[in-house]
Design a protein that fits this description.
Structural class: mainly beta
Strand content: 35-45%
CATH topology: Jelly Rolls
Helix content: 10-25%
Number of domains: 1
CATH class: Mainly Beta
Largest sheet: 7 strands, mixed
Number of helices: 3
C-alpha cells in the first residue's frame, strides 16, 4: 500500500528540557490529525517558523534568535512500513561555536527529528521519572526514542552522538562544516537502518516528525529553510510530509 508523502507545512531541569523536545508545550490547536504545529520548550524563547518559498521550492523558514522550539507533526506508521526518508534543507550560516556533542553549546541550524514508540517500562527508573514529569507538564509522554538528523559545525558526517543529558535522543550528523552552506542539501536516508545504527535495536512505531532550528545555548542567531519530507514504504511509494 502506498501512502501520500507527509508535507511539512506549515542538570535534572536541563535534562527535562531536552526530553520535552518530544512533547508539545501548549501548541495551537491543530485543525486536523495531519496538521503541523508549534512545539515550545519550557523557559525557551520560541523559534519562528513560517511558510514560504526558497529558490522556487515550497519551504518552511526557521529564524532563531537565542531561541529553541520545534515545528512538529504527529504520525502513526507501523515499523514494517518504514523505509527511506527524503528531505532537504538550506542553511546560510552556522551558529558560531555550536556543537551538538557539547551540552553547553548544543545548537544547530538544521535538525530533523523522528519520534518512535516503545516499551517505556523497560527504561531505567530515572528516565521513567523524567518522562512522567514531562507528561505532567505537557499532557503527553515523550517518545520512547528520538532519532535526529543534524547539521553540525565540525563533527564528521556519519558520526552518531548520544545526547549527553538523555540517551533517548541520538543524533546522526549528515552535514558538517561550512562547505555546503548557501544551497539546497537534498538527503535520502534509510530510516530503519539509521535507527538500528543509533539505538542498536529495531524501531517501534513512528509517532512524530519535527524540524528544529535553535541557537539558545550559544546566545546567537540561526536560520534555515526546510523542504518537504517524505517517509517511504519499503520498495513502495512515498508518504509525503511538508513543514
Amino acid at each position: 500500500m502506498t501512502r501520500k508523502p507527509l508535507l511539512l507545512s506549515a542538570g535534572p531541569l536541563a535534562a527535562l528540557s531536552i526530553v520535552l523536545a518530544g512533547c508539545a508545550s501548549s501548541p495551537p490547536t491543530p485543525t486536523g490529525p495531519q496538521d503541523w504545529h508549534a512545539v515550545g520548550l519550557p523557559g525557551k524563547t520560541a523559534t519562528r517558523y513560517t511558510s514560504t518559498f526558497k529558490d522556487g521550492r515550497a519551504a518552511i523558514a526557521a529564524e532563531s534568535s537565542q531561541s529553541a522550539s520545534m515545528w512538529r507533526r504527529k504520525l502513526d506508521v507501523a515499523p514494517e512500513a518504514l523505509g527511506e526518508v527524503s528531505f532537504s534543507w538550506w542553511v546560510p550560516a552556522l551558529p558560531p561555536k555550536a556543537s551538538v556533542a557539547d551540552v553547553n553549546r548544543e545548537d544547530a541550524a538544521a535538525r530533523l527529528l523522528f519520534g518512535f514508540a516503545g516499551d517505556v517500562g523497560s527504561l531505567p527508573p530515572r528516565t521513567r521519572m523524567m518522562f512522567d514529569l514531562a507528561q505532567a507538564l505537557t499532557g503527553e509522554q515523550p517518545p520512547y526514542a528520538t532519532l535526529m538528523y543534524v547539521w553540525d559545525n565540525q563533527a564528521p558526517v556519519g558520526t552518531v552522538i548520544i545526547n549527553p543529558r538523555t540517551d533517548r535522543i541520538r543524533k546522526i550528523v549528515i552535514d558538517s562544516g561550512s562547505d555546503a552552506l548557501g544551497r539546497w542539501r537534498d538527503h535520502r536516508r534509510d530510516l530503519r537502518a539509521d535507527y538500528q545504527l543509533a539505538f542498536g535495536e529495531k524501531p517501534g512505531r513512528l509517532v512524530s516528525v519535527a524540524v528544529m532550528t535553535d541557537s539558545d545555548n550559544t546566545a546567537s542567531q540561526a536560520r534555515a529553510w526546510y523542504g518537504p519530507v517524505a517517509v517511504h514504504e519499503p520498495a513502495a511509494g512515498p508518504t509525503p510530509a511538508h513543514p
